[in-house]
Amino acid sequence: xxxxxxxxxxxxxxxxxxxxxxxxxxxxxxxxxxxxxxxxxxxxxxxxxxxxxxxxxxxxxxxxxxxxxxxxxxxxxxxxxxxxxxxxxxxxxxxxxxxxxxxxxxxxxxxxxxxxxxxxxxxxxxxxxxxxxxxxxxxxxxxxxxxxxxxxxxxxxxxxxxxxxxxxxxxxxxxxxxxxxxxxxxxxxxxxxxxxxxxxxxxxxxxxxxxxxxxxxxxxxxxxxxxxxxxxxxxxxxxxxxxxxxxxxxxxxxxx
Length: 256
Description:
Low-confidence stretches: 1-25, 235-247, 249-255
Number of strands: 12
Order of helices and strands: HEEEEEEEEEEEEH
Helix content: 10-25%
Mean pLDDT: 83
Strand content: over 45%
Strand order of the largest sheet: 1-2-6-11-8-9
Distance between the termini: 7 Å
Shape: elongated
Structural class: alpha+beta
Number of helices: 2
């Protein structure tokens, strides 16, 4: 059970941990997870890294359920927190995952979906510009090959999506579940008109950002990520499974 007293202890723990991280200034090396093999596509050369925090943030990915195209990460240490009496009163955790998605046989890669879920806690003044938690996805996709034999030059497109922006809720100081995502339909890219992608190199920056109202001892902002699922779209069967998976995550969060 989470109450105001628990919130105070959590904030103090965050302050101590934050100071420790600042003193050590650890910048972790990338972690290579190798390849994961899906139903109609493979995810090759999966690597995670971070410019802000120690890794792993995402953790070891799996194809779950088996024989699907769902590449699933289950983070346990991917979070951001800020406290109103500790400058700079804000924090960013930036986790990067990179992989090549390659179609099997006569299949193609019509697009990708990125879906994630977690929890957030906000406490203190209702000041959206100075007291918030935010989730952002920046995806850079380099299109490598297409199905037809006509000349093709690889090129890169960057997509930015602020998935969620949370301000002080009612009630304050307790965990609230969140979920969201982005879908990148390759047919909407003008340079790919009439062409079917068979492989692409994908880099996803998944950014968690918090800010606490400055010099206010009641201000606290926290957000974490418990799930990240990447899927090939459209694939109705897998999308139904994906919906059930995210629902299960949110139910577990409410029980915690």
